[in-house]
Structure formats: C-alpha cells, structure tokens
Specification:
Number of helices: 6
Largest sheet: 3 strands, antiparallel
CATH class of the largest domain: Alpha Beta
CATH superfamily of the largest domain: GIY-YIG endonuclease
Number of domains: 2
Number of strands: 5
Strand order of the largest sheet: 2-1-3
Length: 192
C-alpha cells in the first residue's frame, strides 16, 4: 500500500512531504536536505502517514496536492522539500513552477543565512579562481608585513589595489568595492 507522509523536525520545526510505494516501512525520504537532516539528528524527526491507497497515481496526486496547498498558502519555506512533486515522476521544475526560484533568484535567499552563505561561497570561489593574482598580491603584502619588510609589503599592497581597480564590477548587486589605504590596512593587520 502506497502512502503520503509528513516528516516533522522538532529542532527546526520544518516539515517534509513525501510519498512511498510502501515496500519499506523504514523509508524516510530521499530528498537531499531531508537525508542530510536524518543523518545529523534522526532522533528529532517524527513521521506521520497522512494518506494511504493501493492506487499509486492517486498517491502521487495527493502528494502534489499537499505540497501545492502549502505553497499556495505561502508556508513553503517551512518545508525541506526542494520542489513540488518528484522530478523522476515528471514534476515540472521550470521557471515559476519551481517554488524555490523567482525571476531567476533564490526565494528567501536574503533572509536565510544558510542559503546566502552557500551562494556567496560559490560566487566568491568562482570569482577568486578567475582573479587569483589579486589574492596573491594581498597575501604577499601580508607576508612581507609580518616579516618586517615594509618596502616589499607596500609594493605588493599597491599591486593588489591596482589589480582590484582593474577587476570587472561585482554581480552581487549594490556592492561597492572598497579600496584600502596603506596606513589603515597596515595598522589593521593582526598576526598570531
């Protein structure tokens, strides 16, 4: 007997709506996020079956209805589900049909520090891999400053600032690039 279930996380108070064909009574979902949560704190999760049927198509329909209702109510951010439905079952994730994207951006990204950190980390690593020369000058300036070689540190600092000025504008939005002042930067460096 197939069923639709809801998993409740007592720590975050988030839920996960899923369905299973009934072959494994210990099934707890296969979504990336819920799987990760289950590995970290299985004792905090509770599973409740909300619909059962021998008709798998009806179970798929009920799963989507439960998910769509939460999305329409505006409470989808309280769920671990990534999309409505299952991509292997033909769920349509394109454009506005994917609840996690809106106008090409992540919904809730500015309000969820975890999403923001993940997006920033990815963007920054891509940016730094393209512009490693600037990072190299910054690190060398810091190294020579630590060793007491102020002339060489100043030379690397100037190359770093010159490189920053040659970089393309950020795609972060209203980010304004800050150019350092040698004396302020030098005084701000703390070595351990």
């Amino acid at each position: 007997m197939a069923y639709v279930y809801v998993i409740y996380d007592r720590v975050t108070r988030k839920r996960y709506i899923g369905r299973h064909n009934g072959s494994n009574p210990d099934y707890w979902g296969s979504g990336k996020i819920i799987t990760s949560v289950r590995e970290k704190r299985p004792e905090a999760l509770r599973k409740r079956i909300v619909f059962e049927s021998d008709d798998l198509d009806l179970v798929l329909q009920k799963e989507r209805e439960y998910q769509q209702t939460r999305y329409d109510r505006g409470t989808w951010d309280q769920y671990y589900n990534i999309i409505i439905g299952d991509p292997s079952e033909g769920a349509d994730m394109a454009g506005d049909r994917n609840p996690n994207y809106k106008h090409g951006g992540l919904v809730g990204a500015k309000h969820d520090p975890a999403i923001r950190a993940r997006v920033d980390k990815t963007r920054n690593s891509e940016r730094h891999s393209k512009h490693g020369e600037g990072s190299r000058h910054r690190m060398l300036a810091r190294y020579h400053l630590q060793k007491g070689n102020l002339d060489r540190a100043r030379q690397e600092f100037d190359l770093w600032q010159q490189y920053k000025r040659s970089m393309p504008a950020s795609d972060k939005g209203n980010y304004v690039r800050k150019y350092e002042n040698w004396e302020e930067w030098k005084d701000s460096q703390v070595f351990r």
